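B., you asked whether I could sanity-check this one before it goes into the benchmark set. Here's the sequence:
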Amino acid sequence: MTPTETGTRPRVEGERELEILEATLEVLDEVGYDLLTMDAVATRAKASKATLYRRWNGKPELVVAAIMAHKGVPVVPDTGTLRGDLLEAYCGGPGGLNDPLAQSVLSAVVTAMGRDPEFAEVYRRDFIGPKVESSRAIYERARARGEVHPDVDLSVLAPALAGIVLHRVFLLGDTVTPELIGQVLDEVILPAALHGPCSRS
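And here's what the prediction gave me:
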């Protein structure tokens, strides 16, 4: 009895899965999300389109899986300081904000989220959700060390670093470097974390 007859999907695993995910990122980098097709990825990966559909439901799931594979297993840094943890989280390893491929892919993702609600939903659920939890864990741990004011609203502060850096990249044309991220940390994020909210008269 074949896998199709039993109603189950054969798994694409190991090196073959990674090859397909790498091919997905290559196509995404070259043509963007709108023009990326399952056919194009299959051709690049030297696989059949049926092979892709056995593993992923469609383009949104495939692209998000490729992005997550490139960034690797989420790890919450623990350097002993909020500054060190945030530098490691945003600059450490592949997929950091200073990774050229990550920047190119993110540009395609931002465009896709505005045009494809299905992709936006999958990306927020599978990628953004865990990132938010990881970031919150960093700030909560820093708060326990006394580096974050007790009254700081982490839902406002935690996304601020990425927001400022991405604004500088996509709107101002800056290049992301550890020095840039360190400057934003030292002049904006860390003072805001330690000072807490301004008193309202």
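One thing to flag: The chain has two domains: 14-67, 73-195. Otherwise nothing jumped out at me.
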